[in-house]
Write a structure and sequence with these properties.
By secondary structure, the chain is an alpha/beta fold. Helices cover 44% and strands 19% of the residues. α3 links the parallel β1 and β2. The relative contact order is 0.21.
């Protein structure tokens, strides 16, 4: 597995292209488009628009968002993979798109070699919630209940092979329990299933669940990241329960470009975006969108994506989920 990681990390570095300082001096000369592989109004779209505003101000050229939703983010990624590697087409990668890559067969691009990473932007924990009359009030009690009644506790998610689904599969594998997964098409449908007592537990984003938790319609058992999350500071990380060693699941966002984009352009993009992440106004807007601001080098983000691909492919194989 270490060899796998090294090989693909090297592929990411090569994907950034050969350094050409002149290209960076001339770039940009025209409109930059950011392909968002999901519909308007979602987390990826909001984050993309916040950073597009910053880039436009600092680079002095129009920066537009192009929504290309479909197939768990694969259609949008395909647009970037097939674009000219000139720095004028960018994409935003998410945890869900990596999971889509490990669950799909016959894809028309290779997620680990088709792109040049630019920088990681942000992360966000998921929430594990339960219906209010569910007997477990924390993760330790949930695991105990699942072991007492194997296969009887229903966990919902807003979609097969979504990050939320795989967060539940990893939970099952680490805790050694059997929960019955029921996927829905959207977060509202999954939430309604819990509220209607058609399911017991739900893994979903903080932004999707915060209103119901604050109103007392759902009870929060844990966050899935290793640290407490600012939006729900009183909810403990699942890893603190003592029954989920190593459990750490977050959604995340990062910018990438087509393979072959000149390294000097990647470097300029990286600096522009990381400067934005350090700007107080931009940071406040991102935090208000429900994320924790990150930032990285292209190499760090490339390695991170490789590690995520490897991790979620292992979860898929262990869960016996065939590629579709």
């Amino acid at each position: 597995m270490k060899k796998f990681s090294r090989v693909f990390a090297a592929a990411f570095v090569l994907a950034a292209g050969v350094a050409t300082p002149a290209a960076a001096q001339d770039w940009p000369q025209k409109t930059i488009r950011i392909v968002v592989a999901f519909g308007p109004g979602g987390g990826t779209d909001i984050i993309g628009r916040i950073l597009a505003d910053w880039m436009q101000e600092k680079l002095g050229k129009p920066v537009v968002i192009e929504n290309r939703a479909g197939a768990g983010g694969i259609l949008g990624n395909e647009v970037v993979a097939n674009a000219e590697p000139d720095g004028y087409t960018l994409g935003i990668m998410t945890a869900g798109q990596i999971i889509a890559a490990v669950t799909k067969k016959d894809m028309r691009y290779d997620t680990l070699t088709a792109f040049a990473p630019v920088t990681q932007i942000a992360t966000a924990s998921l929430l594990i919630v339960a219906r209010t009359d569910f007997p477990a009030n924390n993760v330790k009690e949930l695991v105990a209940a699942a072991k007492a009644d194997p296969g009887k506790i229903v966990f919902a998610s807003p979609g097969f092979a979504a990050t939320q689904h795989f967060a539940g599969e990893m939970f099952k594998q680490i805790a050694g329990v059997n929960l019955l997964h029921v996927p829905f098409r959207t977060s509202p449908e999954a939430i309604n299933a819990i509220l209607g007592k058609h399911a017991d537990v739900l893994f979903d984003t903080v932004s999707a669940l915060l209103g119901q938790v604050q109103s007392g319609q759902l009870k929060a058992l844990a966050v899935t990241g290793k640290d407490r999350f600012p939006a729900v500071p009183n909810v403990p990380p699942a890893i603190e329960s003592g029954v989920l060693p190593g459990y750490d699941v977050t959604t995340w966002y990062g910018f990438f470009a087509p393979r072959g984009t000149p390294a000097a352009v990647i470097a300029k993009l990286n600096k522009t975006l990381n400067d934005g992440l350090a700007d107080e106004t931009v940071r406040k807007r991102l935090v208000a969108a429900g994320v924790i601001v990150k930032g990285s080098t292209p190499e760090e983000f490339g390695k991170f994506m490789t590690d995520e691909y490897k991790r979620w492919n292992t979860v898929r194989e262990s869960a016996g989920i065939p590629k579709q």
